[in-house]
Amino acid sequence: MLEDAADQADEEEPIKQRKNGLYPGVSDELAESMKSGWADTELHGLEPIAQAAHTAARRTALSARFPGERLVVPAGNLKTRSNDTEYPFRASVEYAYLTGSLTEDGVLVLEPAADGHKATIYLLPRSDRENGEFWLSGQGELWVGRRHSLTEAEQLYGIPASDVRELPEKLREATGPVRVVRGYDAGIEAALTDKVTAERDAELRVFLSEARLVKDEFEAGELQKAVDSTVRGFEDVVRVLDRAEATSERYIEGTFFLRARVEGNDIGYGSICAAGPHACTLHWVRNDGPVRSGDLLLLDAGVETHTLYTADVTRTLPVNGTYSEIQKKIYDAVYEAQEAGIAAVQPGAKYRDFHDAAQRVLAEKLVEWGLVEGPVERVLELGLQRRWTLHGTGHMLGMDVHDCAAARTETYVDATLEPGMCLTVEPGLYFQADDLTVPEEYRGIGVRIEDDILVTEDGNRNLSAGLPRRSDEVEAWMASLTG
Q1: Which residues of 366-390 are buried (b: 16+ CB within 10 A; e: fewer)?
Q2: Rounded-to-integer distance, Cα 169 and Cα 191, Å
């Protein structure tokens, strides 16, 4: 039987059979039949991936930062959702940023060399036909699809490729200083357990996070692609608001998800499809509430491209196409705050400037409306506006929706903006349904407007300018889509 042969050939990783499968085993005759009679499907003359030159430059910068040290960057492994089903795999940002590869179990290793480092990408090769893996393993080719051969991978990524199954032993035998990006591959970390320290590994993660603060030309293009698809996804939602009214927020979520899957890899984060008072919950992702005419819909969603760059856009829309007087009053205040924030995004400006500019406008409105006692300087000094503004006005954007999160404070929120940085500007006002400190007409209204802003040499570019922001323009846009 094939199980016995496989166990003998590969004692460490036998091909596991489902406990209650309908076939108890494999005859020798079937095993032999499955080994032969297959066409050669090796791909030849593959062109390098679009970002290959950029990933090479990133590896060069990484090499220069850590001379003489072995650097290990895993992609990560599949994670079980339930029993024998897995979550969709998404490669670690660090690995994808340095290689362009998006497959599970991959590991990039930079080994010290006389002139810097030698890079090797360790991957699973094509699934084995000799031991039956390709059709008997749950991760075999006939079950989950074809993997690239190592030769194909070398052509695509421009990096020498080796079998990742040999890597743990190589790492156990390695000498000299080593750093690894932690949290993605327990097996790789176990092989390095006596060679690494948490402090040194954290320095590697910080460097890779800070390297992404300034986007190169390829990255800026991918972010624009993500935003353009997101704009189309918002248009899709407006066209089906009547169906969402007949069902729930889930209809909005599913509508946007369709666009993300057709034009991109996925959504970049859980879509926030918050109608009515749900808009006051910052990360409302249950999306199981009603959609009612007369309420507002806060839609915060982004398409992720096939290279893992995500958009992050928010619009607050009147479900029936027209803002009420109080809704417009609050919306226009947030719009004015966002205008001030976007204007403050300039090369040479402090990162915090856009937040401060937007918060000042919102504080002024809250004082003007009599919701908080002035003067405005006092409100800002004590942070009193935060009862209704709640969150920061933006964040870096890229391969993570909250990109560069491991960067040092002095290179992120305390830094100066540079051309190539991309960030969101997203002020909001949220009047909770149970907030007795505001007039009843305010309660249950939440408004956020968010755009993706690229810092340029002479100012900024709003990547999401394709979506109207001003209240009258939003109403006209919605009318044009719904007829």
Answers
A1: bbeeebbeeebeebbeeebbebbbe
A2: 7
The stretches of 10-157 forming alpha helices (DSSP H) are: 28-35, 52-65, 93-99, 133-136, 141-144, 150-157
Mean pLDDT, residues 258-285 taken together: 98
List Cβ neighbours of 290 (8 Å cut-off, separation of 6 or more).
245, 248, 249, 275, 276
The pLDDT tens digits for 152-171 are 999 999 999 999 999 999 99
Residue 90 burial by Cβ neighbours in a 10 Å radius (0-12, 13-18, 19+):
middle
CATH topology for 45-212 is: Creatine Amidinohydrolase; Chain A, domain 1 (3.40.350)
CATH topology of domain 217-482: Creatine Amidinohydrolase (3.90.230)
What confidence tens digit (pLDDT) does each residue in 51-70 have? 999 999 999 999 999 999 99
Q: Are 102 and 88 in contact (CB under 8 A)?
A: no
Contact at 8 Å (CB) between 316 and 448?
yes
> Across residues 192-207, what is the average pLDDT?
97
The two three-digit tokens of residue 360, written as one number: 């000042």
Report the relative pairing of strands 178-180 and 70-74 from DSSP bridges.
parallel
Instruction: Provide the token pair at 208.
Output: 């890779």
Boundaries of every domain in the chain = 45-212, 217-482
30 phi/psi in degrees, rounded to 5: -65, -40
**Side chain identity, residue 385:** Q
Give the span between the Cα atoms of 328 and 308, in whole angstroms. 36
Q: Is there a shared CATH topology between the 45-212 domain and the 217-482 domain?
A: no
Task: State the Cα–Cα distance between residues 479 and 474, nearest whole angstrom.
Answer: 9
**Residues 236 and 255 sit within 8 Å (Cβ to Cβ):** yes
DSSP type of residue 104: T
Amino acid at 420: G
Sequence-distant (6+) residues with CB within 8 A of 131 are 5, 6, 9, 10, 15
Quote the pTM value.
Answer: 0.94
Q: Distance between alpha carbon 201 and the CA centroid of its chain, in Å?
A: 22
Q: What is the 3-state secondary structure (H, E, C) of 254-270?
A: HHHHHHHHHHCCEECCC
Report the alpha-carbon distance of residue 446 to residue 450 in Å, rounded.
Answer: 13
Amino acid symbol at 75: A
Where does the pLDDT of residue 21 fall: very low under 50, low under 70, confident under 90, or very high at 90 and above? confident
Closest among 241, 480, 431 to 326, alpha carbons compared: 431
The answer to whether 450 and 234 have CB atoms below 8 angstroms apart is no
The residue ranges of DSSP E strands in 103-183, in sequence order, are 107-113, 116-123, 161-163, 178-180
CA distance linking residue 411 with residue 405, whole number of Å: 11
